[in-house]
Design a protein that fits this description.
The structure is a homotetramer of 138-residue chains.
Chain A: H1 7-17, E1 25-31, E2 34-39, E3 46-47, E4 51-52, H2 54-73, E5 80-88, E6 97-106, E7 110-119, E8 125-134
Antiparallel strand pairs in A: 1-2, 2-6, 3-4, 5-8, 6-7, 7-8
């Protein structure tokens, strides 16, 4: 099953619907049931000790899984998170974060999967999230 | 077991350590093993359909449990989230959100508990989160 | 909103539908949006060091939330768990376990809530679980 | 980093320490930071509608991650689950279940990772679990 949206269509959709965060997140790749997203980390994301805040990492996991799902079902902005479980495993390096999202089950009303977060240039995950999104009826 | 920090000490600590979010969150109450925190919701927290974004609700749950924990152990800024499971249950009303955090287990190295989020003035939770924080060694 | 099933109706339903575990679990109390269930702990539930196995505690949390939900919606055996997050917090005492389940959101298609597990006679939770059940359409 | 235990050593350890479940679970493969385990499904694991019970699937996820962890750290029976998040995604086929566990972070005191469960012969996961195990100090 191929994505219904191209990278260019996704960028365009994202700019329209989430103007407040369009410069924060960059969709790097869309594959069947998968997406890769970069988060530009800035001062507001940092916490004491130089680490990236939990909410910033949650936001990246959330948006990456949203994008992986939308790419498969088409642009339905009202698709919403119903649950997320996130484990923080390592202190991120200074710099941007990358998220690799994969869908494990795409049903009519739910999309279920997980996301790994990496510091740019590292292959050791800093966090791992499991997410469920609710897909609005047609 | 009584909290080690008063509401005034907590406000002062929070302003020093988290200047970037000190106007966003307001600690309303500290009790043994529990805290109540308000989040001032603004335009940047909203999403299509008028709902409050998942990351904003995660941020509130995270900070409320952090505050409940710090109140009990004293001001250790490097206390960090190790895991969070959050279920989004209802669309929040327009307006601020309140978080009620309770600690279920306070050990030497871990604090474990949960947080319920409410729209201001409602008693039906919009989200429920379970969190684990890692406490730095002395 | 009152439960649709009495304690006696629940016992009768449970014996019919789950004959393989009817002697393992005992429903002690049904309240609006809440249930209390006892698990009789035996040798097969124990693990090295004398602790109760994770799967046994999961089973108790799962069945307690199932019962709290069924009591509210009536006997729909095909109601199934869609997700569970469980944190193990303390080593249980030898002896039975009690579960206190509460429903936080009862919708048409989902029941969401949490369960605290206690060693019989103690008020310190040994585990805390958040669960979501899917309710079959009418 | 290579496993510290061979498949034969793991079988022998498992028989000694978990005699009550040694015929239930079969370790099929050990790799660096990964393990594959089969669960023999029998009548006691089934629920109304012919599905496999949630606790049985939890038990398989739990044991598979335990084995993946022990293989890397050596036979420390007192390694215990501290948290598990499990999403049930599809109704399993009749027959055995396979679990593929991977470790995402192996620290001195914690092992964090996830497990996918499959019906034997299918490549669509029926459930996905994220687990954290606590490793006892030396």
């Amino acid at each position: 099953m191929q994505p219904k949206m191209t990278l260019i269509e996704m960028h365009s959709f994202f700019e329209q619907v989430f103007p407040q965060v369009k410069d924060k997140f960059e969709v790097l790749d869309l594959q069947p049931m998968a997406a890769t997203v970069r988060m530009h980390v800035d001062e507001a994301d940092l916490r004491p000790g130089g680490t990236i805040s939990g909410p910033a990492m949650f936001a990246l996991a959330d948006v990456a899984f949203y994008i992986a799902t939308l790419a498969m079902i088409g642009p339905k902005a009202l698709t919403v998170t119903t649950s997320c479980n996130i484990n923080f495993m390592r202190k991120p390096e200074p710099g941007d974060l990358l998220a690799k999202a994969r869908i494990l089950k795409l049903g009519r009303s739910l999309s279920v999967g997980d996301v790994e977060l990496f510091s740019d240039g590292s292959d050791k995950p800093v966090a791992h999230a499991s997410l469920t999104y609710s897909i609005p009826p047609k």
